[in-house]
Recover the amino acids of this structure.
């Protein structure tokens, strides 16, 4: 099995955390002033959905209003785009054209779910966003990266997440977690494609964009959740 080359400074960001009860705001509720848009990214089968559910539970316990959502999807028409993209195995879309569908779905999702939630003060926890489009579709725009950037920017209107958590598992771990799950179109693509996706996320860790946090996804579920919540709290306080 081919692995992403190079060492990845992943666990440097989150190593060990105090139990949730000892976090400063467990007794002093946080200032809910800063509304946060938080995105969870990574390859298929890295455990994003589990963490979104866990973090959502913690936010609920803390009385922080929030929504959880996902891409592609999040509204009924965008979920229809998701089905059109993920389950047309016999007649797949050209990779470049997927960007148009994803952008349309994202624009709908932003207009009708994400922006209204942020405007009324709800935090948004979103399973995938623009970094997935870079990881999975950017390779189709090698000859015209400016066009790719323009489409992605058109869809978001420049809105960027406050925090993006990128989950990493090595290829062997990821595949063994996915064993038995039926593949969608993206997951059934060849190994080179999957390798490029993994390499994209791994390379980001070497030169992290602002607001990105890289997580070694094979840590215990509770440890990861605490790390994520702790980072969100620090961000809210302006510490990171
Ligand atoms: P996901 O919901 O993470 O699927 P699963 O829970 O089954 O792992 O993501 C669905 C697929 O959509 C995933 O293979 C990545 C792909 N995708 C893109 O190719 N481009 C994008 O911009 C987005 C948001 C997702």
């Amino acid at each position: 099995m081919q692995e992403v080359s190079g060492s990845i400074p992943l666990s440097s960001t989150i190593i060990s955390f105090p139990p949730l009860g000892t976090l400063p705001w467990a007794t002093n509720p946080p200032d809910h002033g800063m509304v946060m848009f938080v995105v969870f990214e990574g390859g298929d089968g890295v455990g994003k959905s589990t963490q979104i559910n866990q973090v959502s539970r913690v936010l609920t316990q803390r009385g922080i209003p929030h929504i959880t959502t996902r891409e592609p999807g999040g509204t009924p028409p965008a979920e229809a785009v998701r089905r059109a993209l993920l389950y047309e195995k016999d007649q797949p879309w050209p990779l470049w054209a997927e960007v148009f569908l994803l952008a349309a779905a994202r624009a709908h999702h932003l207009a009708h779910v994400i922006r209204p939630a942020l405007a009324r003060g709800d935090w948004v926890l979103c399973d995938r966003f623009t970094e997935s489009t870079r990881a999975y579709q950017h390779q189709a725009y090698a000859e015209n990266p400016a066009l790719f950037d323009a489409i992605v920017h058109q869809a978001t209107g420049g809105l960027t997440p406050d925090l993006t958590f990128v989950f990493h598992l090595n290829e062997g771990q990821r595949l063994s977690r996915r064993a038995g799950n039926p593949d969608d179109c993206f997951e059934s693509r060849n190994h080179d494609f999957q390798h490029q996706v993994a390499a994209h996320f791994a390379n980001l860790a070497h030169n992290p964009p602002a607001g990105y946090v890289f997580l070694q996804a094979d840590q215990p579920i509770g440890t990861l959740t605490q790390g994520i919540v702790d980072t969100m709290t620090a961000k809210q306080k302006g510490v990171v």
Remarks:
- The chain is about 45% helix and 10% strand.
